[in-house]
């Protein structure tokens, strides 16, 4: 497949060079903003670690919304919607073993692609899934059983990417699980091994154990800039990529919530989905609804300037985050997730507009100015994923 214009993030240091006795000293707040004024960016990026690599779309279709709580999903309508996204070039789908019927829907979808679409599209479609096990003993058989289940559901011989999550860091079984996953990759059952919601310290431990993960999927938005404080620099040092979710905050970062007052009952749009409720809590932790309105107003001015929507600006801003490494700006985010309510709502046009949007220095500065008025969520919540591990 053509890769002209794609950002390829090469390993700066070999993973094996990071050892417990020579821990990398990370500098917080090393983030800067990259701008690509006057350019149209390629849709795809390659995530890579050593010999493992996978080309994905930089805007991923998140399928958490199929798990219930966003409205009833009709199977046929959902698969038809997936085909429309893929036909429009938005061909990377992100799911998990616990996202309701997500993996089964992907299996139906990929068979439709095989039967009804040219081979070129099949080569571009990617299905990324997650495994979120309880912190029990991670035997080879237990890991294999669960990966085989996802393979059957998705109807693929090899998972494009398996993103692993672990709840309890006091239990080092996550290293056993990742080593078994690496063995399955060697058998051809998984193409790339990755992480989701791991913090910087544990990511470094994993890399020190020579486990070649290609990415870490973390919560990241204009409100939640935690990944840029420590995580992004380690990722740049090692070649691991960031894939972000919550980038439009379940829809809070949109025109729908501009100029609303949620303190007055029934005065604004209802927070009637799990994602809206989740990210409203992030807004509260960051600085509250009044400051969030200032952010939306700033994003609206930028969106009007470029003729796009607020969510488009919000995603572009995160994709443009960079890290200063060895005196050079290095892109820090490989791709960002946008949740899809398959068959219920569609945002193909807005998603594709992200690739042609170029935020200039004035845009970036105005957004950054509001973002910095909020609280430092690294201090309030902790590092990436800590919100899932607090007692």
From TrEMBL:
One Pfam family of this chain: Aldo_ket_red
Classification via Gene3D superfamilies: NADP-dependent oxidoreductase domain
Ranges of biased composition (kind: Polar residues): 11-22
Domain NADP-dependent oxidoreductase: 60-371
Classification via InterPro entries: NAD(P)_OxRdtase_dom_sf, NADP_OxRdtase_dom
Protein name: NADP-dependent oxidoreductase domain-containing protein
Region: Disordered, residue numbers: 1-22
